[in-house]
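Budget justification aside, the reviewers requested a transparent look at the raw inputs and outputs of the sequence design task funded under Objective 1. We therefore reproduce one unedited record. The lines immediately below are the structure tokens for a 163-residue chain.
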């Protein structure tokens, strides 16, 4: 089973940090999460616009979700030549300011997952913002393969699965 984690903090208190967790054993690749994301951010059911991707990992023989992990020390933020990328100290969400971004692509090349991408209409980089702490992908996942849980619960889950 392959699990991935993306972090963000609750605005309530640091003790209840929450993370996005994908459990590949529950994922059917229905792409409901992708449709929900595209609808929330762009108002269209276009899988290409989604900030989350479901891909098949041949080696693991499982579906995996690929999405922004809102890194503690984001490479994308560190390479942005115009400081268009910021990390919210309270929530941990990494955001791209479209009013500052010049669409150079440095963030895409710096990200180990290549997550930020250039939107062809807006001509700026775009990426997941965890729906400001209320991820639509999680709410719409019919199998609960995606969950938004307290950080400690996620790490306990990951530790038990990889013993």
């Amino acid at each position: 089973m392959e699990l991935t984690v993306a972090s963000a903090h609750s605005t309530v208190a640091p003790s209840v940090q929450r993370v996005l967790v994908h459990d590949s054993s529950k994922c059917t690749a229905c792409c409901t999460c992708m449709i929900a994301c595209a609808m929330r951010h762009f108002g269209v059911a276009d899988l290409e616009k989604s900030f989350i991707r479901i891909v098949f990992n041949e080696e693991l023989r499982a579906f995996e979700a690929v999405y922004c992990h809102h890194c503690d020390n984001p490479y994308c933020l560190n390479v942005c030549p115009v400081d268009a990328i910021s990390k919210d100290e309270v929530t941990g969400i990494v955001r791209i300011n479209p009013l500052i971004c010049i669409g150079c692509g440095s963030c895409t090349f710096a990200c180990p997952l290549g997550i930020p991408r250039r939107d062809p209409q807006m001509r700026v980089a775009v990426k997941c913002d965890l729906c400001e702490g209320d991820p639509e992908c999680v709410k719409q996942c019919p199998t609960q393969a995606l969950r938004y849980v307290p950080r400690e619960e996620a790490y306990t889950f990951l530790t038990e699965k990889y013993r």
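Confidence is low (pLDDT under 50) at residues 7-15. The chain has five helices and nine strands. Computational costs for records of this kind are itemized in the attached budget.
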